Amino acid sequence: HERLDAFNKELVMDIQLSGTVILATSRIQNRLYIRMCIMSHRTTFHDLDLFMEILSDFYQKKTKNFSTDEK
Description:
single chain, 14% strand
């Protein structure tokens, strides 16, 4: 579980540093989860789709680097 928690923590930091989305993490039963909080009443489904796209893109880049780092 430690490697997955570290992966998620780094993923959140990478996304935050990009300046596109602000995320946080929460620890529930000693596991690290990615958390998104919607604060604006102007948030649209397009915004949520964009968030999922950004998260997916960063995840795919990170897993590609992660798998090459393991070799």
